[in-house]
Design a protein that fits this description.
The protein is an all-alpha fold. Helices cover 43% and strands 0% of the residues. It has one domain (2-68). It has helices at 22-31, 49-68.
Length: 69
């Protein structure tokens, strides 16, 4: 599994034991019902799946408004 680690992790938590260890990070976030920073960077401090869908919905609603003009 060492091949699934990265040298340049985008997560700002450098002191986290899972920083750069992708498999361990995903397992940890799966157990806390949240997304890793690299998958949801613009999270406003809330990495929960609920917030992810709220942000995603808003983004698509805004794109549909722009496309209708």
């Amino acid at each position: 599994m060492s091949g699934l680690n990265v040298r340049k992790c985008s997560c700002p938590k450098r002191t986290c034991k899972n920083n750069g260890r992708c498999c361990s990070c995903v397992i940890k976030h799966k157990s806390t019902d949240s997304l890793p920073f690299c998958l949801f960077e613009n999270n406003g401090g809330d990495k929960s799946n609920k917030n992810y869908y709220k942000v995603l919905k808003k983004r698509f609603e805004n794109n549909n408004i722009k496309g209708a003009e």
